[in-house]
Amino acid sequence: MSIATQDDRVSSDQPDEPMLTYVPARAWGTRAAAVLLSLAVVYFLVSIGGNPNFGWPVVGQYLFDARILSGLSLTVWLTLVTMAIGVVLGTIFAVMAMSGNTVIATVANTYIWFFRGTPVLVQLIFWYNLGALFPEFSIGIPFTSWGVSVPTNTLISPITAAVLGLGLNEGAYMSEIIRSGLLAVDPGQRQAATSLGMTARKALWRIVLPQAMPVIIPPTGNQTIGMLKTSSLVSVISLSDLLYSAQTIYSRTFQTIPLLIVACLWYLLATTILSWLQSRIERHFARSRNAST
Amino acid sequence: MPDPMIVFDRVSKNFGDLSVLRDISLTVSAGEVISLIGPSGSGKSTLLRCVNHLERIESGSITVDGELIGYRRVGNLAHELPEKLIARQRARIAMVFQNFNLFGHRTALENVMEAPVHVLGIPRREAEEQAIQLLTRVGLSDKLHNYPRMLSGGQQQRVAIARALAMKPKVILFDEPTSALDPELVGEVLDVMRDLASDGMTMMVVTHEMSFAREVCHRIAFMEGGRIVECGKPAEVLDSPAFERTRAFLSRVQ
């Protein structure tokens, strides 16, 4: 009661006090920086676009060249295939690395240690030259005479060497990404699944992995975009990917810069599409977090 | 005399040198509600987790509805069952956790449907119908399509109970079901449990809710140091405990 009367008195005591109008602070420094930046960007674009040394007409001439496009398709194909292999191997090795069995965990950790610890360039050359180490590739039952064998060089074409080299290397990186995702899921989830009668495998597929996805996807997108460019290393085993195709052309025409620009434009386009895909997938797996009532 | 549902026979378990369960013998009848009380570290939760073989026991045996849990007896040897058979036993022994452990990527409805469809192999439509019924029973018919993070703790725990019921379990094990809840949300979960008890569900409840233990449970077992110190009707254990240790514990919690 006493508080109410006090309030009444306060408001009635100052009836003519005008209401305040609030004016937000103006960030003059930020605005000035934005103007300066815009000017710098315009100057930069003009100086590149107007510079005849960049050879923009040559860029246009080769942008849709058949050799460039076939190189692009090989690059995209290699990226998708090796990432698919990387994700599958990564999942297998992540689960193995978390196994309670020392032998299984050690094998997985050794794989990760070796393939992350050696340059992927060396791994590619190694796979390409596998025939020098094992001239014959045979399938059979060990210590018996039953089996089939073929010369390794007929099996390992440059393309299989590339897929093996990049895929196995990627598997090592992916297994660390997937392992961190699996560790991020509350152990209570696995327990609840187990107590409902799920086997460990079913709990992994239906309960743990789907919830690990929000953690796994951003770095996997990163790896995919990285692979788009790492795959250009296959030129050492004479595969004509996007970059190598551009190099083949400029080694004869000496239009180095324009052709590199052609390659970069395609890399940028592919990266843009992959980033867009990534954000779509992220949104799909985040729906349980973002959904509103 | 009702049939025995859960029988602990001289059960012992160690974590390394620490013995967490010592020579526990206890019979829970079908339709009985028994609560386990006692200080933390007394082995209550461990005992509960042994019932569905989430923890292994070192000696003794546990049977549920006459079936030896986790092992197959051959003469005097008990061979641990393969994972698939243990999973089949667990499917009929439901568990409700302190932290709910609802599947975060599934809606309330999907949480309740998940195991019936993917463990028991019940057709989706049938499982969905059953799930809607169960969620209605726990008072959540308006939250079917909510994800767990959009639900309060009390609502999450009620979904977890519906998820447990969907497996048509022989027993439900409750591991401190209200300990993670805000005080004003405890009541709604206990109401659901009370309803189950009056329905004749066999329940083992690890709890600190003495009033729930008194009102709803048929018996209370007081545990300390891995042993059941005393076990009897709520009025006996809570009002005139036979042992000084029980009295000391009760004076601290009540």
What does this entry look like structurally?
- The complex is a heterodimer of chains A (293) and B (254).
- Chain A is mostly helical.
- Chain A is 75% helix and 3% strand.
- Chain A has helices at 2-13, 28-49, 56-63, 66-97, 102-117, 120-128, 130-133, 152-155, 158-183, 187-195, 200-230, 242-253, 256-285, 287-290; strands at residues 136-140, 147-151.
- In chain A, helix 3 packs across helix 13 (256-285) and helix 4 (66-97) packs across helix 9.
- The two termini of chain A are 41 Å apart.
- With 254 residues, chain B is α/β, with parallel strands linked by helices.
- Chain B has 9 helices and 12 strands.
- Chain B has helices spanning 44-51, 83-90, 108-118, 124-137, 153-165, 183-198, 210-216, 234-239, 244-253; strands at 4-15, 18-29, 33-37, 59-64, 67-68, 71-74, 77-80, 93-96, 171-175, 202-206, 219-224, 227-232.
- A 6-stranded mixed sheet of chain B has the order 8-9-10-3-11-12, sandwiched between helices.
- In chain B, helix 3 packs across helix 4 (124-137), helix 4 packs across helix 5 and helix 5 (153-165) runs parallel beside helix 6.
- The longest helix of chain B is centred in the last third of the chain and has 16 residues, at 183-198.
- The radius of gyration of chain B is 18 Å and the shape is globular.
- The chains are: A mainly alpha (293), B alpha/beta (254).
- The A-B interface holds A 186, 188-189, 191-200, 202, 206-207, 210-211, 285, 288-289, 291-293 and B 52, 54, 83-84, 87-88, 90-95, 97, 99, 101-107, 114-115, 118-120, 146-150, 163, 167.
